[in-house]
């Protein structure tokens, strides 16, 4: 689930952003068209401004921006506690829980309504939203949208040969931040990950930056590694990509150095040990401080203090022997598969409990 | 559109109940069960149901059998006395459903199974060799038909160390999984964190596969395809693990066997090691003396150590080029520019940043 980190923008910047937005009202959907986008797979969801939902489609190698028109402001935070949520979704699709997969979840920051992408056995993707405790279908027919195709990492002239197999760029995470939709993805062929930052609204020409990220956390050995999930932090007026890898180091990269094709080295700020894969990162603010929450495949949800990250002085070449670096606090929440900020410091999360039940719940953090 | 009339749940008291229907009495369960429901199929998928009622029906909902809480999301259409209920995704094969109005049962229907379809087979596992380096990075699994997109593939793949008899967990549990667009080719990475020297997973858990050991990889038959059918059979592959591959693929070390001019005989390239089965076909291109890219067929032989290129047109006399994208990898993920694991103290292994590597050959 791919979340929004608007909350981490400092107040002055936020003020400027709001002012700019007001002066260019409707500019976000200016180049949208009405039609059926023919989305093949919904792999990632993330909300942007004005109820615009970004949909990452790995099969089409395309990012869609959907005008949900779900812009009725809601400040209420209703408690959600739904048991057997996978069964509920399966029933709404006329099938059983073993025939579906919930691929992502995102909360509309305006309406506070949660959206879910679901796949069925044959790969058909469906978009649903939860209104109260009622699931509703979000039709993708005759909608207002725009899209941008993601460039193939392999040269275009290699495309038309017989015996060639289809390359897919699997979208591992996606989020909107400060006028850009950022996407990380993995190739199903060569061992590489690419991070793209695409200005939004999408333009006719592809104006984006891509790079392969090198991870040199351990002094002697340098290796390139695929990003699993990421966030954005601001320090001294500069944005940093906070990338988490499949083998869980947390690495900071200055955003302004992410140029097309450039290989840059990051600064490892934490290492959380082996046998774990990060699943999701969200941020929230409490008592004037910003925190990150990171859910993991084999660790409880970790809470990391934003200030600890930006003030970390660890050097990239220092060797990390165990789970160390930036301090984190483990919340009593394990097997959290999806999470997003519902409102303020309330998160909505999907969790597989110890008895195997999939629950959808809210929780204050 | 094939219509499949299903009445197995009707209780055959339609005649008796007609007066009640005419009176608009809908409180009796038996009355509602008199509705005949047609299931409409397109390409064997149950895309809608239709039924007829002379009484105006409203607040209609369909539930999976045994579930009373969450109705099937659908669009309802009515035209005269005919009603159509179209779910947002086709009804599931073999599933039973209940049609209700205001919570009262109107009728029931079931979706027929998919019948005997051609079973999906596992066509290939790459690397196809049975001797593999201990820093092997990935394996590919190629199926004859699209596989299901719901369950984790690792639920159906087991690896056994034949020396110890122990089951091993060597693959990275990646989400999303790496499939091609048709969902017929799966890429699995052996845990990179365990392969990379000095990373914590490498230090604590060791390499995923160990030199000198035999392993068996088993693919279970209950892994379902996109139609929900099991694989044709269980599949297995045994392999032996040799030493670490710490060298990049180097173009100048390849042996080129050139064909004669005015033939379409294949150009044969003998790599000095097995290369990635998919990248070897994707990243190697041939240009004729006019610098045009040649179209043709690529065939890998001898456990991905040999590539044969069959051009569509005759070879001409002159200088040709082999251009290789630097993304080409060997079995350990070492590409043309860089090793998978770069030891910064070993200056000799520092790679390049060339996007392509080129070799010229002559046709005579």
Task: Provide an overview of this structure.
The complex is a heterodimer of chains A (365) and B (364). In chain A, strand 27 and strand 28 (346-352) form a beta hairpin. Chain A has helices spanning 11-23, 85-92, 306-310; strands spanning 33-35, 44-47, 52-57, 62-67, 81-82, 100-107, 114-120, 125-131, 134-137, 143-149, 169-177, 180-187, 193-199, 209-211, 213-218, 221-224, 227-235, 238-245, 249-254, 264-265, 267-271, 278-286, 289-296, 302-305, 324-325, 329-330, 336-343, 346-352, 358-364. With 365 residues, chain A is mainly beta. Chain A is 7% helix and 46% strand. Chain B folds into three domains: 2-110, Immunoglobulin-like, CATH 2.60.40; 122-242, Immunoglobulin-like (Sandwich), CATH 2.60.40; 251-363, Immunoglobulin-like. The longest helix of chain B has 9 residues, at 14-22. Chain B is elongated and about 85 Å long. Chain B starts with a strand and ends with a strand. At the A-B interface, helix 2, strand 6, strand 9, strand 11 and strand 15 of A face strand 4, strand 14, strand 15, helix 3 and helix 4 of B. Strand 16 of chain A pairs antiparallel with strand 24 (342-343) of chain B. Chain B: This is SbsA Ig-like domain-containing protein. Chain B: Keywords: Signal. Chain B: It comes from Saonia flava.
Descriptors for this entry?
heterodimer; A: 365 residues; Methylamine Dehydrogenase, Chain H; five-stranded antiparallel beta sheet; 29 strands; disordered N terminus; B: 364 residues; mainly beta; Immunoglobulin-like; 3 domains; five-stranded mixed beta sheet; 25 strands; SbsA Ig-like domain-containing protein (chain B); signal (chain B)
